[in-house]
Structure formats: C-alpha cells, structure tokens
Amino acid sequence: MRLRLPRRPATEPAPADELASPAPGPADASVSSAPAGPTGATVPERSRASVEPPTATVALDQQSVWRAAWVVVAVVALALFARFVLKDGAQVLFTVVMAFFAACAMEPAVSRLATRMPRPVATALVMLGVALLAVAFFLAFGGMLRDQLTSLVTQAPSLVQSAVEQANQRFGLDIDQSSIMDRLNLTSERITALAGQVATGLLGFVTSLLSALLSTFAFLLFTFYLSADSPRLRTWLARLFPPRLQGVVLSMWEIGLVKVGGYVSSRLVLAAINATAMGLFMWFIDLPYWLPLALWTGLVAQFVPNIGTYVSIVLPVLVGLVSSEPRDGLWVLIYAIAYQQVENVFVEPRISARAVDVHPAVAFASAMMGGALFGASGALLGVPVGATIMALFDLYKRRYEFSEAAEAVAVAAAAGEPVQESVRAELDHYDI
Question: Residues annotated as region Disordered (predicted)?
C-alpha cells in the first residue's frame, strides 16, 4: 500500500536542481523573464498554478501491518482480562486485598517477634494467638451471647411498648404503638423469624465456617505469605521501578504499613478495651443483655469514624431506660461520657497517635467512599487508605510561603475596592 503525501507547500522556493534547469525557449511565452542570477543566466519564474506540490511515498510493509494488528489484539485481550478480574474474579481480588490489610495489621507484632526468630515463625505465632483468643472467647461467652442476643431480638416489641408508654406518661403524648411497629416492620411473624435466624446463625457458627472453608483457607494462606514474605515483596516491588523512583515506592510502602496496619491494630485494641470496660460496668449495674451491648459499643465506637461514639451508646441507653430500672439508662450515659473523656486524653493518644493523624472530615469522607465502593469492609478500610493518601500528598507536594499580598488582593476583591499598585507589584515579582 502506498500513500502520496505532500512534502512542502507550493509557496516554498524551488529546490536548487529546479533552479538550475535550462531556460525555456521562445515557445514558453507564458513564462515571464526573471532577473539574472549571479552568473548572468536567466532564472525562470514558474507559475504557481502550473506547479504541483511534491509528494512523498510511504510504504506500509507486511511487518508493520502485523505489528499494528498484534498491538490491537493485545489491547483487547488486556481489556477482557481486566473485565474478568473486576467482575468474575472480584471475590479472589477482594480476598487478596483483605489479606494484605490483615498482614499490615499484624505487622507491628510480627516485626517485634522477627528480631528474635525467623519471620515465618513469628507470623505463624501471631496468627495462632489471634485464633486461640477468638476460640476462647466463643467458648466462654458463645452460649451467653446467643441467649442474650436472641432474647433481645425477641423482646423488641415489648421494649418498644415500654418506651412508648413511658413517653406518653411523662410527656403527655399520644403515640400509637401499632403504627410504630408497622413502620419498623416489626410484626410478630418477622420477630419470630429474626430470632430463629439469629439463634440458627450463632448455633451454626462452626458449620458456617466449614462451608466457607475454601475462602477462609485462602484468606489465611494469603495473609501468612504476605506477612512472612513482606520484606522480599517490598524489595521485588521496588525493583520494578528505576532507582530515582524507588524512594517514592518505598515511602508509599512504609507509610501504608504505618497507616493501615497501625490503624487496624490500634482500633482492635481500643475496641477490646472499650467493650471490656463497658461490659464490666453494665454487668455491675445488672443491665439486661450486657454482653451483646458491650460488643456493639466497642466495635461501633472504634470503627465508625467521628459519630461512632455517639451512635454506639444510643442502644445501651435505650435498653436501660425501658428496663425495670430506668435509672440504668442514665448511669450508662454518664459512664459513657466519662469513659470517652478518659480514652481521648489518656488511652487513645498512646495507642493510635501516628495511625489516625487525619482530619475528621477526610476520615468521614473516606469511610463513606469506601462503603459505597466495597460495602462494610470498604468503610472499615477507607479511613487508613485516605490517611495514607493524605500522608503521601503532604510528603511530596510543593509548599509555598503564605503571601500577605495575596491576602490583601482577596480582601480588596471581596470589598469591591481597587488593588493597590504596590500589592500588584509584589505579586508580579513573586518568584515561583
């Protein structure tokens, strides 16, 4: 295949070989005489309309065509593979991502143990310790948690009725319980079904784990290898980039470990402390359903950004207010406020000062974005990911000194006043 492409416009001067062509004869009357050149020869002046633009020939050989075709095939194959990964292989990808975050959460404990023993052994010990704690908790409190949670769900209508009656008596209201139950869709049939589901789910916890054995095994395997081979993975990832970019890659890795691992591990520790303290207090005042309420308070208060502390305490307070001793709700509220102050001043700064150094608005937006993309797990991990991005931005962004002249221009523009020439001159001479 050959294409004829213009090489130069017709208005450009003719090349030297054309200028050196013989002078036209008498028959060429249409060509006017041109001024003499340096040697005295007459140089013809050719008409623009009679001269075609020179062309260049481009040959598309078979090798170039095949190369372009294979590039198109590679792009299509890559697009299909990305579609498969994001759609059909999303579960596997999600398992790998969650395993990576779990490995980051174990990193503080693994790195400390790795100074005294091989890293794979340290990783196995940490994972074994977490598994033993979970098994011991469910063996000790599994039956109590099942009974109290089932009773709480079953007694929901009576709790709502008690709350409505107290509100009508104390505030002179006329609230209909049936309308509230209908709006909440808490019919007797639904309550019975929910109670059965809760009881079945808790009693069949081991069966559920066995049915999800493949996913659980894959998660544990990925977590172990990502944690045990973390140094080699870090080196392999850095070697994919030239030396001038390896510093950026390693910085992202280290900041991610600090933010993600530190956040998850610190939240788990704070949740355990919060749930234990709240459970002991509610057990001491003999509040009904103290175990599930303590777990609810600890997890929601620590893993829901900004508003989790206030949301977590609403349910225990309501249960206390509608119980046989309404003062228990007030005691729970007073304790929650006091504990929150102690945690903010003495506990949390010592555990998670480095991990959650992010603006509350950024944390809330990150959690909402993560929840919209990946559900509850995305909301949980959205905050450390957002903190990592903000830390990298603070590390590599270019900073400028604050200009008082720019502030003066902004004030003058808001007031509708002209800007002084001295201020304009200062901005014009500012060196970027």
Answer: 1-54
